[in-house]
Amino acid sequence: MSKHDNTAAVKIENISFHYGDRYVLDRINFEIPNGAFMGIVGPNGSGKSTLIKCILGLLKPQSGKVSFFGIPLSRFKNWGEVGYVSQKANSFNTAFPATVYEVVSMGLFGKVGLFRFLTKKHKQKILEAIETVGMTNFIHRNIGELSGGQQQRVFIARALVSDPRLLILDEPTVGVDAASVSNFYEMLKSLNEEKGLTLLLVTHDVGVMSDYVTHVACLNKQLHFHGNTKEFKEISKEGFSQMYGHHVHVLEHHH
Ligand SMILES: Nc1ncnc2c1ncn2[C@@H]1O[C@H](COP(=O)(O)OP(=O)(O)OP(=O)(O)O)[C@@H](O)[C@H]1O
């Protein structure tokens, strides 16, 4: 594969961020290994979105640094390698009259008006991305006529058309009904395992998520734990709650 194989996909070094005099992130250090599927969990207000914004360079931390594939954020230019699916509610007006095919094609150009310039190769990419997320049967359906989980799949396909090496997802299961959540994670897992895509997922959903990810980071202003899923599961539930606060409970899958 690529020459970056031993380099972390994302390296976060000593990141601190405060809004005014209010600390939201306190000296955060961790790496997302290339090829990992990492879940970041934390209660409301624990700084998850702020951390994602610092990673993407949308917010500038007061201290610390971020690098992608070994390149410092300040010099990183290959944004096509990094896909981002923000919280659904903020990302798209689903009343907008666009089909699945049209929404996914925006991942190539960002604009609907450029449809007529799509080459055969572009069209192939779009069809492939739609197939990867299992939405081929809905290709001409309007985005507004899909369920929350189906819409999220389409937004992921939109992020996949530019062939990213890393995909960052902020609360992708919000609005996805409980029965579809496992299917949704299953799809992410196969993107990770079969396509070798590195995934970073932010969620409240500790229980179900931990059955699919390879690594976990627990955030509550500070990083309370980071490691592989086996280590995460070995932490006793009580010990974990004490360490991390009462907001988060590790639930077994069948609950
Ligand atoms: N623009 C802002 N100005 C001031 N404070 C902010 C701003 N944005 C967020 N905060 C505060 O920073 C803290 C962390 O917010 P953040 O959105 O990063 O948390 P989160 O873990 O993503 O929360 P949630 O799970 O509820 O989305 C919260 O206390 C929030 O109120």
TrEMBL record:
| Regions crossing the membrane | none
Question: Sorted alphabetically, which Gene3D superfamilies does this protein's record hold?
Answer: P-loop containing nucleotide triphosphate hydrolases
SUPFAM superfamilies per the UniProt record, alphabetical: P-loop containing nucleoside triphosphate hydrolases
On the tree of life, the source organism's domain of life is Bacteria
InterPro entries the UniProt entry points to: AAA+_ATPase, ABC_transporter-like_ATP-bd, ABC_transporter-like_CS, Metal_Ion_Import_ABC, P-loop_NTPase
Keyword annotations: ATP-binding, Nucleotide-binding, Transport
List the PROSITE patterns hit by this protein, alphabetically.
ABC_TRANSPORTER_1, ABC_TRANSPORTER_2
* Domain ABC transporter: residue ranges: 10-245
Tell me the GO molecular function terms. Answer: ATP binding; ATP hydrolysis activity
Per the record, the similarity remark reads: Belongs to the ABC transporter superfamily.
Put simply, this protein is called: Zinc transport system ATP-binding protein
